[in-house]
Amino acid sequence: MADTAKEAVEQLTLEQLDKIVEVIEIETFITDEYRDPENNSPLLSKVMIKHAGELLIKRLKGETTFGNELDITSSLGNNNSWHEVAAIFDKDEFEDELEFKRKTLDPYIEKLKKQEFE
Q1: Do 43 and 30 contact (CB within 8 A), yes or no?
Q2: Could you tell me the maximum CA-CA distance found in the chain, to the nearest angstrom?
Q3: Which of 70-74, 91-95, 111-115 has the lowest mean pLDDT?
């Protein structure tokens, strides 16, 4: 088990990096809330994204075929009404971070919130 976010990112396998890229290619982003459909385990933690995100982006760009620009952000959802969700997103798909949050991340958080209370 990794002691730090950096170590956790360094320990990601090429298969895990490829899965992360696959999700980003399909969804334009991945969050700490994402679960691998094969085993329901998280691929990334909030700490990994927030504190070692730059290293993760460097690995994704250097060790996979993904060529688009990536960025990191987080949100509490509309009106700061839920727990923080951290994300890595495809910058080439959005005008800026604010557009990503407004059009994609905040609605995603609202959907998670609704699912939690159903």
Answers
A1: yes
A2: 41
A3: 111-115
Phi-psi domain of 39 (left: phi exceeds 0; alpha: psi -120 through 50; beta: other): alpha
User: pTM for the complete prediction?
Assistant: 0.89
User: What's the rounded Cα separation, in Å, for the pair 33 and 98?
Assistant: 20
Q: Which residues pair with 70 in a beta bridge?
A: 90
The set of residues, in sequence order, having a beta carbon less than 8 Å from that of 30 and lying 6+ positions away, is 20, 23, 24, 43, 44, 87, 88
Given pLDDT bands bounded at 50, 70 and 90, which one contains residue 53? very high
Short-list 73, 55, 71, CA closest to 7: 55
Q: What is the pLDDT of residue 86?
A: 96
